[in-house]
């Protein structure tokens, strides 16, 4: 299949966890794509045309047709590029299980955003919520994703939707912790999640996608100071 | 060996209704377990430990949670009478709009429903904007996917019922036929569609339930 038949353009923003999911998924599946960095304070006419409902990134444009919403895009990629690395398993019950946990990792991100939005003095409750979700996630995926109890099987060749989601949310966890002076991921409390994300961020493919630490700290602090609502 | 399908639901949950419709549309036999969410059964908490919510589908002892995840599971497991479009792009559009329905539309309708009188006009603006987007999607179509009921109709099904309940309780017209001809028409077709029409929860019970809910919200919002 020639490159002319499958033109893929990703509209994104370098710090957006939602965009990172799609970026990583495209790389895992070996799909060549063009990347367009959007200035979210001055959105391109193309972005507004392709995502008139939400006006947000990421937008994947495949042969001129836009697909919006990160999880919708991930499923679309798996269905169109159905040979080669797959983000979801084939069996329906396993698919349902992966979809459930992918959505749960998104809820974890929402809890982290609540933490970011809270005043420093009011950190305790949102932080508890984050830790509760981390605990649920650790216990939930243990049985079916890490039956040996450790992320020995993590490699560039077998990354799937849960790895993609985890990278998007916890890939820059140290930057988030530094920017907000909070402890999000404790290896003592979440040994499995900690070693899982460590294994992931060591992979060259993932390193290409996770934003540089200092740049991330900078943008998070800048956004918080300017009153941005995560 | 016969398959065992169980559905945990409540009498009024619109999310659970999606699965009732899906199973009936595919002619799948199942056992219903009605839950009282103020007194959850040990089974529900065992099958859905994270959220403790309905619906939960249990197929041969294995639980599936979250209504849209369950819909996809049902469609992938029982492949006849497909609910989702086959084409990947059409499928992505269906998922997009289902998310819109649950994230944006439902929130804005609910905000209008619990708004104090002085806040209703503002709340109505967002609700109406979202309704306009749904109206656009229905142009030239009887149901969301064409001539027959499918995934997106089930996803928006709660809305078909709730609109008239909201309108009666609040004494206002939200989806009027002139402003929203396609949406109005979809509501009529969907409410009366085969299988769909046999499953609606009792309207009088729904009116009471939501009236009480609204009164509680308004009372809590009133400054002391």
From TrEMBL, chain A:
Catalytic activity from the UniProt record: RX + glutathione = an S-substituted glutathione + a halide anion + H(+)
A cellular component annotation (GO) from this entry: cytosol
Span of domain GST C-terminal: 91-228
Main localization of the protein described in the UniProt heading: cytoplasm
PROSITE patterns in the cross-refs: GST_CTER, GST_NTER
Pfam families membership: GST_N (PF02798)
E.C. number: 2.5.1.18
InterPro entries according to UniProt: Glutathione-S-Trfase_C-like, Glutathione-S-Trfase_C_sf, Glutathione_S-Trfase, Glutathione_S-Trfase_N, GST_C_Tau, Omega/Tau-like, Thioredoxin-like_sf
Function statement: Is involved in the conjugation of reduced glutathione to a wide number of exogenous and endogenous hydrophobic electrophiles.
Protein name: Glutathione S-transferase
Species name: Coffea canephora
TrEMBL record, chain B:
Listed EC numbers: 2.5.1.18
GO molecular function: glutathione transferase activity
Pfam families linked: GST_C, GST_N
Gene3D superfamilies on file: 1.20.1050.10, Glutaredoxin
Family annotation (InterPro entries): Glutathione-S-Trfase_C-like, Glutathione-S-Trfase_C_sf, Glutathione_S-Trfase, Glutathione_S-Trfase_N, GST_C, GST_C_Tau, Omega/Tau-like, Thioredoxin-like_sf
One GO BP: glutathione metabolic process
Residue span, GST N-terminal domain: 3-82
GO cellular component: cytoplasm
SUPFAM superfamilies: GST C-terminal domain-like, Thioredoxin-like
Keyword Ribonucleoprotein part of the UniProt annotation: no
Catalytic activity line of the entry: RX + glutathione = an S-substituted glutathione + a halide anion + H(+)
Keywords carried by this UniProt record: Transferase
GST C-terminal domain sequence ranges: 87-210
Domain of life: Eukaryota
Enzyme class: transferase
PANTHER family (UniProt xref): GLUTATHIONE S-TRANSFERASE, GST, SUPERFAMILY, GST DOMAIN CONTAINING (PTHR11260), GLUTATHIONE TRANSFERASE (PTHR11260:SF762)
Entry's family note: Belongs to the GST superfamily. HSP26 family.
Protein known as: Probable glutathione S-transferase
Organism: Coffea canephora
